[in-house]
Task: inverse folding
């Protein structure tokens, strides 16, 4: 498959995803926001957290009321939390070693931190950049991926308008930033990026590996799995490029499994990748479009997957690929992140 054919195939998939999203209308938990308990309960081992922003702005498809659902390990609803200091879609859920839940509204931009008792910490201003993911260094340092890059403040497929960086004509550089635990900038790494289908996506998901010396990352809707040498500050050859795989047209999110392998959501499925060789270990077909959020379970035996378009949340067996548990967040075009509390 040549580059032009690849791009056509990916655009065809995007069209299918959009059509699927528009065709989906309602689910049995459509009134979940009205029926759910307000606020978070103290986090319990195995609780599953799902970013479920209320998309209530009719003129901006990225703006909304920030909301995160809390489920127990069986996907039974426990809590509903409204974030402070955010105006845009919430995503990038991740747990820090101390049990703090991190989340991002990259359009605002804002970084959200919620302690294990369910209380949001005071909002800290890390940067004007569109940070959308965090990885935690062994020394307590924080590595953020910059979600946006380039000069386009608006794209044809969205109604939102991206902010230019102060004094510059770009919405971002798509770099990786290293901060201290007390929010002081230590280093900026000029990482190469793919740009994704629209050319605006920078470093959208990250995995820190090899004793915090190598950063593996992707650009949402791109086809490359990239890597950067943090010690020598240099770009490494791509770990994997999906240019001839009939199952994988794009990469959407990236995280690490307990065994160190890489879990990548592809919209219509999931792929496990060897973090050192880039070899495909296994592919899981989700049989429909929109599966854009994924995370490993704390047992390592299941994968948590969320569908952006339909609002469905499921766990599947790592061994068989079969659905083990399922639920719905009650809203379409919203689900943008999942994470399980390790305890």
Result:
């Amino acid at each position: 498959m040549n580059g032009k054919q690849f791009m056509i195939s990916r655009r065809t998939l995007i069209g299918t995803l959009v059509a699927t999203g528009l065709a989906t209308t309602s689910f049995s938990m459509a009134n979940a926001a009205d029926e759910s308990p307000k606020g978070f309960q103290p986090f319990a081992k195995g609780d599953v957290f799902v970013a479920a922003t209320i998309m209530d702005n009719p003129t901006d498809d990225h703006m909304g009321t920030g909301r995160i659902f809390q489920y127990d390990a069986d996907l039974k609803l426990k809590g509903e939390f409204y974030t402070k200091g955010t105006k845009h879609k919430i995503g990038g859920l991740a747990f820090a070693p101390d049990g703090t839940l991190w989340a991002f509204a990259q359009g605002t931009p804002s970084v959200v931190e919620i302690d294990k008792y369910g209380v949001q910490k005071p909002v800290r201003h890390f940067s004007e950049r569109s940070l959308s993911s965090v990885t935690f260094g062994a020394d307590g340092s924080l590595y953020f991926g910059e979600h946006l890059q380039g000069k386009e403040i608006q794209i044809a497929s969205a109604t939102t308008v991206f902010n230019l960086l102060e004094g510059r004509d770009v919405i971002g550089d798509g770099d990786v930033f290293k901060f201290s635990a007390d929010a002081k900038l230590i280093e900026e790494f000029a990482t190469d990026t793919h740009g994704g289908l629209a050319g605006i996506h920078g470093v959208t998901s990250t995995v820190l590996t090899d004793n915090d010396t190598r950063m593996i990352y992707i650009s949402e809707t791109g086809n490359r799995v990239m890597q950067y040498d943090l010690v020598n500050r240099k770009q490494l050859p791509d770990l994997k490029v999906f240019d001839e795989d009939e199952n994988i047209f794009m990469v959407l999110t990236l995280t690490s499994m307990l065994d160190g392998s890489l879990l990548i959501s592809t919209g219509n499925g999931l792929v496990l990748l060897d973090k050192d060789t880039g070899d495909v270990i296994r592919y899981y077909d989700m049989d429909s479009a929109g599966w854009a959020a994924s995370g490993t379970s704390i047992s390592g035996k299941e994968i948590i997957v969320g569908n952006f378009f339909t609002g469905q949340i499921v766990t599947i067996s790592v061994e068989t690929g079969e659905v083990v548990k399922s639920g719905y967040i009650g809203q379409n075009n919203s689900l943008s992140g999942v994470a399980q509390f390790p305890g």
Q: What stands out?
A: Residues 38 and 90 are 18 Å apart (CA to CA). The longest helix spans residues 3-23.
